[in-house]
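Predicting holo structure, iron/sulfur cluster bound.
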Amino acid sequence: METPLAFPALHASHAGIWMGRNDGQVQSIGKGEAAGRAAETPMVMLNAPLVAQRLGYPDLSGLDLLELYAFVYPARFAVPTPKGLAKALGLDAPATDQEVPIFLLHAARHLLSVLGEADWVEREGAWDSAQALMRLRWPWANLVLAQLKKPERPERWLFSRLPEWEEAPPRTPPRVVTLQADAVQERLASLVGGSAETRQGQRDFAQAAAEIFSPRKGKSEPHMVLAEAGTGIGKTLGYLAPASLWATAADGTVWISTFTKALQRQLVREAKRIYPDHETFKSKVVVRKGRENYLCLLNLEDALQGGFAGRAAILAHLVARWAAYSHDGDMIGGDLPGWLPTLFRRNGSTALTDRRGECIYAGCPHYKKCFIERAARASVQADIVIANHALMMVNAARGRDEQNQPSRIIFDEGHHLFDAADSMFSAALTGQETIELRRWVIGPEGKARGRRRGLSARLADVASYDEEGGLAIEMARVAAEALPGDGWLARLAEGTPSGPIEHLLAAIRAMVFARDETNATESGYGLETELADPDPNVIDAAADAAIALEALARPLTMLGQRLEAMIADPPDWLDASARARVEGATASLSWRIDTLRAWISMLARALGPVDPEYVDWLAIDRFEGREMDIGMHRRWLDPMKPVAEIVLKPSHGVLATSATLRSGGDWQNAEARTGALHLDKPATHFSASSPFDYSAQAEVLIVTDIKKGDAAALAGAYASLITASGGGALGLFTAIRRLRSTYARIADRLARDGLPLFAQHVDPIDTGTLVDIFRDDPHASLLGTDALRDGVDVPGHSLRLVIMEQIPWPRPDILHRARRLKHGGMEYDDRIIRAKMAQAFGRLIRSAGDKGHFVLLSSAVPSRLLTAFPPGTPVRRVTLEEAVQFVKSGLSSDTILRQDRKDMLEESNPI
Ligand code: SF4
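Done. C-alpha cells:
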C-alpha cells in the first residue's frame, strides 16, 4: 500500500513550471510564485539544483526525490529524470511535463512504501542512518522513520559489514609461452559467440594483437604493435582473445588501459564472456583506477563523526549507505550515482576520497577493508586488469612496487596516450600546488576542520624512536612555513604577498599581466607569457624561492633516508602493520621530493639557460574574471620520451590501438604519439578499415552561410537543425562562452516543441549523467565541449545528428607553438584538427544500424581536412536551409521528403 503524503510537488522545465497536489490537481505557475511557495512549504521535486536553476532561485530546497532514491536504493543505477526514475521504479512514466508533479508524488509514496516491505534488500543499516539523518534535519527523515521499524537487534554498521581483503603470496613471474594462431582464432570464435561469424578484419586484428605476447628477443626491446582498427571491427574481443589465452597459459596479468569510462564499462561487459561464472570473473578481472576515485573509509568516518556539517554531513550519510552496498567503492565512475554529489553542489564529496596522498596505510583502522587496498591486491592475482591511461602513467611515474609493474599492456583509445602522458609528466609551481604541499607537511592550521594531519602527527612513532628522523620532521615543518598559506590569492591581489613563494607568484603575476599578448585581459580567461628574458623581479624572487624550496627538500630527503634505513634494519616495534605504514610514507614522501626537485629545476631555468627538452611558461589561470591560480609551468616538448623509458622499454609487449591511431596523419605520426619512435626495436603496424557502409549510413554537411562571430545566427542554426532532426543531436563547441550563449537563446524554444536540451557547463549535472539522460530520451539533445567529443558512446537512434560549431583549431598557446615549430607547422595543426573531427564524427556511427548527419557550421573548411572522415562518406557544402532539409529528410533509405532531397542532391555540390 502506498504511503500518504501531504506535500505538493513542483516540476520546472524550459517549457514551464507546474505544481501538483495530492488530490490530482495540477496548475501552471510563474517563477516568482513557485519560488515563494517553495520557501513557505517543503515541496517534492526531482533534482532540486536543476529546478532551482530553471526558477532562477539558487536557494531553493525541498524534498528531493533523488536523495530519497539514494537512501532507499543505494548503489542502484537510475537516470535522474521523471522517465528514468519511472523506469528504475517500474512505474508508468509521465507523458507530458504537466503530468510530472503527480508522478513525483506517486514515486515518493512508492519509495516510502518500499521501506516497509519485508524483502527490501538494502534494509540493513537504514534505521541507524535515518536516525542520524534526522539529527541533521534531512527533509525526508521523519517520513522515512515513520515507515521504518526499529530493528530488534543492533545492526552491522558499514565498517563491520564490509569484507576484509586477504593477503596473498607474491605472484611468480609469467611462464614463457607462444600462442598458436589457430588457438587465438578458436578463442576469438568462442568469445564472439556460437551463431555469429567472426569477420576477417577482426580475425586479422586478433592475430596482430597476439604478437605482443611472443617471447621478447632483447632487454628493453618490447614487441610493440600499433593497430588502427576502424569503428565496428570488434577490436575489444579481438585483443581479449589472445590476452585471455596468454594470461591462462602463462599465469600472468595483462593490463588493458582505456581513456574513457564508456570503454572501461564495455570491457567489463565483454570480459564476462571469458569468465561467465560470476565468482571466477570477480577473481580474474579487476578494474583499477587512480586512488583519488575511491572512497577513503577513514575520511568518511571523520565526516560522519562531525568533520562535516550541514548539507555536507547529509551527503556523507548517503555516501555511507552507498558504501555498504557498493561493488568496489569507486565514487567517480563506479556505482555511486554521478548525480548524488551534484545534489549537494559537490559539497565535500572530494574530501571523502584520498586526493592528497594522506593515506596512513596500515596505521588506518580500516586498512583491511579499504577499497583501494583491496583493488590493488586483487589486481596482482588477476588475469585481466582494466585500468586507464592516467593510472598507468601515475604508476609509472610514482610506482612503488616494481615487482608488479605491468609487462603486457594494451592501450586502447591509444590516440589519447600523448595527452595522458603530457599532463602526468608535467610540473607546475603554482599557488595551489604549493599550498597543498604546505598542508601535507604542516597539517590543518587556524580554523581548519577534519582529520587532515601533518607529517609529524602521521609519523609520531618514528619521531619518538628516531632522533634524526624527528629532527627532520621538525625542520620540514618550519621550512614549509615559507610556502603560501590560506588567503594567498587575496594577498597577491592586494599587493601584500607573504614569504618567498608568494613573492615569486606576485612577480610572476605582474610579468604575465605586462607581457600577455593574447588580448585576453578583458575576456576573463587565462593569461600566459613565455619564460623568456624574465623580469628582474622574477629573477630575484626565483632565487629566494629556490633557497626556500631547498630548505624544505633537504629535511624531507633526510627523513626518507631514515625511513628506508628503518625498513632495512627494522627496530623491534616495527611489526608488519607499522612497516606497511612506513613504506606508504616513504612512497608519498619520495613523490613530494620529486615534485620539489622539479620545481627547483624550473626555477634554475628562470635563472639560467633554456633546456630544449622542455617548454616553460608563466600563467594566470582565470575563470570568468576570477583568478584561480598563478605560477610557472613546465611540459616535456615530447612527453612520450619519459613514457618510452619508464613504461614501454621495461615491458615485454605493448599494443596501442584506436580507430584513429594515426590521428589524421601517417604512421610516423602514430609512432610519435605512442612513443614507439623512441624504441630500438621498430613497432609493427596493422590497419583494418571499418566494416560500416559510410556512404549509406552517414553524410557530412558543411554549412557555408553562417557568419563567423554571429552568435544569433549560430544559435538559430542549432535550433533549426535540432528541430529538423526531432532531437537526438550532440552539439560540440570549442568555447564555453558560445555554448552558453547558444543554450540561453534556444533552450526554451526547443522545450516548448517537446525537445529538451541539456548542456555541459550550464546544467548542474555531471557529464556522465548528462550522457545517460541524452541516451535515455531520443528527443533530447546535448551541448558540450571537449569531453563529449570523445567520451560519448550512444549507439542507435538517440544520437543521429552531430553539430560542430566550427573547425576545432588548436588553442594557439605557448605550448602548442613550441610543438608546432618542432613538428612541421601547418601540417601539425592539420593533424590535430583532423583527429578532433574524426573523433567527433566517430560519435555518430557506433553500430551497423546507425545512421546520421554530421554538420559543420563553418563556411571555409579546406578540402585537405576532409580526409578526417572515413573513406566513402558523402561530403556536401550546403546552405543552412538545405542542411535543414537534408536532416529533416534523413538519409537516402528514408522515405520522408525523398523527392525534395533528390532535387537538393542534384543541386548541391558534392566534394
Ligand atoms: S587505508 Fe588509507 S585510503 Fe584506505 S581507508 Fe585508510 S586512510 Fe583511507
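The chain is about 45% helix and 15% strand.
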